[in-house]
DNA sequence: GAGATATGAATGAACG
DNA sequence: CGTTCATTCATATCTC
């Protein structure tokens, strides 16, 4: 039953969750299975797991499947992240940021694929989602712009130190008669001027571009060009 | 679900989760990057951004990743919302070459752009994850830096002198009859003009915007536009 | 300081 | 599997 239903609104007392929200007990079970090494349960295992989980609340095979998929994916990502973090050196400030999750060991498992390669239906059953989205919540969500941000204007950069960023010289040229500052090196015409223009020098010769739309050479400071 | 309540433990032992609170300077930087068109920075870019932000306070790659993810999501939703609100406006129109395209305001775009169409490979999309390897090369012989990486409104333009600089050529156009300097590349309409306008060229055609409310292409120097 | 809002973080569900 | 989207949760921030 979709919210549509035509009839009058009002109804939506039934707290229909569009997406599965695992109960703490379910998470505990899933977590322990995962941590035991079974990070990628075959289909039949998935079904068993689902049945186990059902004792604590509605859940479908697909939910279990997705859970493991996400768990593997995110666990691995985190692993990589901090691996990389270790690689990168110091930098003072050391970041903040990351969340908890102590890092359940990501122990890989032989990997038994189920269902052959990929997808193909994960199985069609289920889902809790029986529907609906509902929600009458109307949240307004207007924009926003950190007003406070605009106020405090700071002077940024002025001190650099570790930022190997190469910067390209900015030169001043005349485009269609107007003075303009542009990158001194080869540039992406479309990105810079907003369209696939042919840049023509005042002498009448067009500035050559490569197959990607980049100027092969930078413009010459103080010269006049036209966008055609 | 509240962490409490669960008899047995849940999956979040550490109840104290302090969240990153970006400094005004950091927000300004992030906003300018986003508004410049880089709405979905690849992993390496994310790292660079994080390093830049670190000058103003502790921050991790994950924070940057989440920031862009949330920014895209919320910007997109907002855009969708007001597009829906505008749907009621006459749509088809047929012919008169004028009003017709006023509402063509929303042409979806692939999503990761900023290299503009063809930039050669800088873009890719990855995220925090990335794995590995790859990236071998880096000898770009062409690209240097996405030209579209920049700064957006000429007003704030911290001509700094250090690293990473986001700046795009500024062009002069006429908006509602007034001469005005704007970013030459794709820009965030709302951020630039202060409202969700449809930018109409003097020829009567509307300048297309993407799902985030960004102009797909920059304005043309010296041309006349109207905000509707 | 309770309620409303802005927004960082987390995660289920897809897609390719 | 990596990536991305849509929601949801939780907290920082602001207001009266």
Automatic annotation (TrEMBL), chains A, B:
Cross-referenced SMART domains: HOX
Where does the UniProt entry say this protein principally localizes? nucleus
Q: Where is the composition biased (Low complexity)?
A: 1-11
Disordered: where is this region?
A: 1-20
- Gene3D superfamilies on file: Homeodomain-like
Keyword terms, alphabetized: Developmental protein, Differentiation, DNA-binding, Flowering, Homeobox, Nucleus, Transcription, Transcription regulation
Instruction: Kindly indicate whether the keyword Ion transport belongs to this entry.
Output: no
Molecular function as annotated in GO:
DNA binding; DNA-binding transcription factor activity
- Domain (Homeobox) spans 13-78
A GO BP entry: cell differentiation
Q: Name one Pfam family in it.
A: Homeodomain
Residues the UniProt record assigns to the DNA-binding region sit at 15-79
Location(s) in or outside the cell: Nucleus
Q: Does the keyword Isomerase apply?
A: no
InterPro entries found in the cross-reference section: HD (IPR001356), Homeodomain-like_sf (IPR009057), WOX11-like (IPR044558)
Tree of life domain: Eukaryota
Q: Which GO terms describe its cellular component?
A: nucleus
Family per UniProt?
Answer: Belongs to the WUS homeobox family.
UniProt-recorded name of the protein? Protein WUSCHEL
